[in-house]
Amino acid sequence: MIQKKYSYLLIACLILVFISCNNSPENKELDQHPNLILNAKSVSEIKANLGNVPLFDETLAQTKEDVDAAIEKGIEVPVPKDMAGGYTHTQHKLNYANMQKAGVLFQLLGDEKYAIFVRDMLLAYAKIFPTFETHPEPRSYATGKFFWQCLNDSNWLTYTSQAYDCIYDWLPKEQTDYLNTNLFRPYADFLSVGNPKYFNRVHNHSTWGNVAVGMIGLVMDDEELINRALYGLDKSDVDLTEKDNDGGFIYDKEGKAGFLANVDSPFSPDGFYTEGPYYQRYAMYPFLIFAEALQNKKPDLKIFEYKNGVLIKAVDALLNLTDVDGEFFPLNDGQKGMSYYTSSLVSAVDIAYFYGKQDARLLSVAKKQGAVQLDATGLKVALALKNGAEKPFVKESMELSDGSKGDEGGIGILRYNNQKQTMALVYKYAAQGLSHGHYDKLSFSMYENGDEVLQDYGLSRFVNVEQKNGGGYLKENKTYAKQTIAHNTITQNETSHFGYDFETGSKYHPEKYIFDASNANFQLVSAKEKNAYPGTEMHRTFMMVKDADIEKPFIIDINKVQSNKNNQYDLPFHYFGQIIATSFSYNVPKTLSPLGDKYGYNHIWKEGVGTANAESIQFTWLDNKRFYTITSATNKDDELILARVGANDPEFNLRKDPSIIIRKKNTQNTVYASIIESHGNYDPVKEVAKNAYSNFSKIEVLTDTVDYTAIKITFKTGKEKLLILANTNNNSQKEHTATVKGTNYTWTGTYYYK
Predict the structure, then answer these.
(1) I need a labelling partner for 166 at 20 to 30 A (CA). Which of 132, 215, 431, 533 fits?
(2) SS3 of 514, please?
(3) CB atoms within 10 A of CB 399
(4) Are 202 and 231 in contact (CB under 8 A)?
(5) Residue 469 to residue 221: CA distance in whole angstroms
(6) 299 φ, ψ (degrees, to nearest 5)
(7) DSSP strand pairing (639-645 vs 554-563)
(8) pLDDT tens-digit readout, 361-384
């Protein structure tokens, strides 16, 4: 009897403990809304600082102006009709952006007109949601509901979830029950269970889908949706070879799915995102906004520590993948002009500062952005800026590995900075990059003072311009922009790398040979590619050299090719501007003809053709009031082609950009050796050209063996430099001896330069 009495007492105590734990202040706060991006603590802190934090106050004022204008205009929830850039598409984008802002304003200013705006908008969406199955434009592998693709619907739900969270406790229970049952749960199911090919990918599309489902799951405290978002759907009985409309695999080869898989697989340990910086920029918002929500709502996950804190590293990596103006290098599918001034990077910088190590360099970026996120992260950044805590974000030479384990090549960036000039060389020896990848192994681009000198074409698309294919990708993205000849790298036998086959390209990646930026006056990056063309190995090395006798640094480009048979090799340099002079003669045809019939050659006009007739040629052009010259070692019968994009382009979808192509025919093994230099300037007001001629007279290949390649560079002054590269041993401590023209040279490391 006594034992039973104690048993009852023990049970009662356990119940009391359970009730006490669940009624703790921390759990009560998690049960109250908002509790994702904003919560009671952050709202209180923000209110206490309003009027005293300039950047936060300015952002809040602009947000209020935007939303007040939207309220004045009235609510419009049109039946979906248009693709990207059209009226209905644009209106639904405005709606989710304005709802998210209005929710924040309701919490920070306490004015119910903002809650009413969100409520009425949500009720309007709940009314039309069940009246149609999908968007009327079935052009995507995953057709959306309010938009033509599920990707945009996921944007809608990600932003709208934040608005809903901000007014959840203000709404009567019957309305939250109605919205949960008739809009949000069906919408989450539509994006996931209804579209498993979309939801279960490892891709930026699916990141948005995972986050949309996860965010609304957090608002509704729906653990099933949260787990679905984190770990994906069951993937049994699926075809792992299926592809999307961009040509990429729908399912991950390792069987991973969900948000955590999208953190694991595409990011390297350095924070590089394999799809490239343009799509990394786009995906950083869902990655970080969901991470912030998880940190607030489910802190035990420790999401910002996941994969050694890769989400914070990714922000630093992304900022380093920009030029001096903050514009992202257009690697893979990338639209030129996109920069860290975009709203997604405002959020990324604030969240990385708050949840990272309060890196003061991020504050200088936030200051340039001129806005902050209206939450605790933005407040912390704004307060730090008010206190003058920022430090410059100096972009230095660096290497970013690719692949989830960092073993699939990478991106090497060589930089030179002084008060008057910046120069950057971006070398791409990365993996395929999923469906947004290009066939451009060992390609590069070059920048001076933020201007492209030798370009990566980027994507062929006019994003959100309805007249151009509804804002979607143009067919020329596949027929030209992704092709090898559109990049500054070798094309063999007029065929793109891997035969433009995605499955083959996805199996392989170049191998880093060396990256060394320890000597600011002689920086080097080198990589090899053995699989782009069976039987052919390409080994390309770039050096950025600052010589005391020359005002600006110059680039040495050594491209060694070894093959088991004779081939035709084409190496283009895609430049901008006006041809000034050539050391070779050429003929200009009266009638233009395409350079070839496929693999991008069909989009290139042959504007001029010449023959080298020399062991070294020069090509000089003028752009941005600066002179540039390429000096290249050649065989006398090498062909020089002056080319321009634009053939077979009846809708004028392509830019009419020029290039010079060095063609070697019927050749087995060869070395392309070039110097790329910026020199002088032209003043159109004074009409004066300064230093319009190259600083070099020639470049020669003295010897080329399996183990060593020796290059001689001759300056206009008569000064000579000998460069010897070790081709097969990259050990920095290895001692080498090579014989060049009867003289023995001994050195330690991968190169000799004297």
Answers:
(1) 132
(2) strand
(3) 19
(4) no
(5) 40
(6) -60, -25
(7) unpaired
(8) 999 999 999 999 999 999 999 999
- CA 291/CA 157 separation, integer angstroms: 16
Helix (H) or strand (E) holding 714, with range, is strand 708-715
Residue found by looking up tokens 């590269």 in the block: 725
pLDDT at 5: 40
Phi, psi (degrees; rounded to nearest 5) at 696? -120, 150
The DSSP annotation for 649-697 comes to -TT--S---EEEEEEEEEESSEEEEEEEEEEEEEETTTTEEES-S-SEE
Active-site residues: which are they? 279, 436
> Quick one: tokens of 399?
């290497």
At residue 246 the predicted structure's pLDDT band, cuts being 50, 70 and 90, is low
3-state secondary structure of 126: helix
- Which residues, including other chains, have CB under 8 Å from residue 687's CB and lie 6 or more apart? none
Res 9: pLDDT: 40
Please tell me whether residue 69 adopts helix, strand or coil conformation.
Answer: helix
Give the pair of three-digit tokens for residue 458.
């980027």
603 phi/psi in degrees, rounded to 5: -105, 10
Instruction: Answer yes or no: are the C-beta atoms of 379 and 388 closer than 8 Å.
Output: no
Max mean pLDDT range (77-86, 226-235, 665-674): 665-674
Give the phi and the psi of residue 339 in degrees, each rounded to 5.
-140, 180
User: What is the C-alpha to C-alpha distance for residues 612 and 671, in angstroms, rounded to an integer?
Assistant: 15
pLDDT above 80 (res 235) = no
pLDDT digits (tens, 9 = 90+) for 57-74: 999 999 999 999 999 999
Asked whether the CA dihedral 429, 432, 437, 440 is positive or negative, the reply is positive
**Residue (of 159, 167, 291, 263) closest to 216 by Cα position:** 159
**What's the pLDDT tens digit per position in 291-350?**
999 999 999 999 999 999 999 999 999 999 999 999 999 999 999 999 999 999 999 999
Residue type, 536: T
Q: Which of 98-112, 138-152, 231-245, 530-544 has the weakest average pLDDT? A: 231-245
Q: Stretch 475-481: mean pLDDT, rounded?
A: 98
Residues 618-635 as b/e (b if ≥16 CB within 10 A, e otherwise) read: bbbbbbbebbbbbbbbbb
34 prior amide bond cis, ω within 30: yes
pLDDT band at 26 (very low <50, low <70, confident <90, very high): low
Which residues are CB-neighbours of 65 under 8 A, at least 6 positions away? none
677-716 pLDDT tens trace: 999 999 999 999 999 999 999 999 999 999 999 999 999 9
Check the CA dihedral 183-188-189-195 and report its sign: positive
DSSP characters for 196-227? Answer: HHHHT-SSHHHHHHHHHHHHHHHHHT-HHHHH
Q: pLDDT tens, 522-581?
A: 999 999 999 999 999 999 999 999 999 999 999 999 999 999 999 999 999 999 999 999
Tens of pLDDT, residue by residue over 85-115, are: 899 999 999 999 999 999 999 999 999 999 9
User: Rounded CA gap, 749 and 754, in Å?
Assistant: 14
Closest Cα to residue 672, out of 524, 520, 559, 528? 559
Residue 20 has pLDDT above 70, yes or no: no
Which one-letter DSSP state was computed for residue 122? H
**Mean pLDDT throughout 121-136?**
96
Q: Provide the terminal-to-terminal Cα distance of the chain, rounded to the nearest Å.
A: 97
SS3 43: helix
379, 49 contact by CB (below 8 A): yes
From 127, 163, 162, 164, select the one nearest 146 (Cα to Cα): 127
- Give CA–CA dist 68/733, Å, rounded: 66
Dist. CA 121–CA 462, nearest whole Å: 30
CB 335 within 8 A of CB 472: no
Helices 223-231 and 204-220: crossing angle in degrees, nearest 10, is 160
